[in-house]
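Support reply, case 0932

Customer input (verbatim):
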Amino acid sequence: MIGNDQALSYLLGRYGEESGYAITTVQMVPSAAETLALQPSAIIFQSVESLETAQPLVRELAECDVPVLVCSSVTDQARARELGADGCLMHPITYTSVVAALTTAARRVP
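Our regenerated output:
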């Protein structure tokens, strides 16, 4: 997960823990090599703004078939898709929506 919202990091971390997924949070956008070394099921951006800032990484990940998810509101969903998000975790973020998104993302990764 990429972003610096501590409350959101905690929430998604707990959801991941409860569902058997390990969620690693970084505040700064890592390189594609650093990201891929973690062998992620998905990359989660905490906001559309952080997704926008990380466009070079998103373009590289598109070539590697790593799903990109972003936490967003309904009004930001179209913009998130334009920026390369494969899926959105809509606010208010619930346990069920996070587990569904992670499960779907995990199935996509070869």
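We compared this against your earlier run and they match. Two observations from our side: DSSP finds six helices and three strands in the chain. Residues 6-108 form a domain with the Rossmann fold fold (CATH 3.40.50.2300). Please reopen the case if you see a mismatch on your end.
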